[in-house]
Write the structure tokens for this entry.
Amino acid sequence: MTERSIAAYDVSQRVKTYDVDMDLMHPNRSKMVHVALEVLPFPKTAALRAIDLGIGTGYFTERFLNNFPNSHVLGIDGAQSMIELAKARLTTLRSRVEFVVGDFRQMQEFAPVAGSIDVVFSAYALLVPGGWFVNADLIVANSPELEIRLQELRVSGIVERARDSDDRFADLASTRRFLADLEKNERDQPLTLAEDLEVLGSSGLKNVSAFWLDTASW
């Protein structure tokens, strides 16, 4: 995350279509979150304290709170626009969420607010012993040749799901241009699986592993 990527998500036009765009570009998002919640070794009745680093529109937090109805979440995001969307999504769940606008690269600033944490979404900080970090994210292939093919499948999948309803995804060329501009403007550069696991392991997390991989719904 950089100041540039934070600013990109604090533009009303960008966040207004965020969830719709995610459904088009990342159709496995629901499954990713389902798997992340499924692997957590806590009973449904547990009163967990969690941090959602980059709460966005509240998609992950909503699923987490419904899955663990006695739990509370500290939702952090650098973009006020995203926080407002999360508040609108969560409605009756808002009493179980503390919203903070801030840069989660500076997690030490939130330590007094967070206290002891059982679960962290999206990034790693402040976990109690035995706590869990779950990351539902995208990766790139180790092989450039394989990544080219996966991107071809990704682009064609977006065009098919858009079905002429969105000019940004009217054809393969316009979709590829949109994704290239998005990656450039938001500095969104996924890692390979090996790199991702190495980053997590070097941060001090133990038993780092991938629970689920899927390319079938590109």
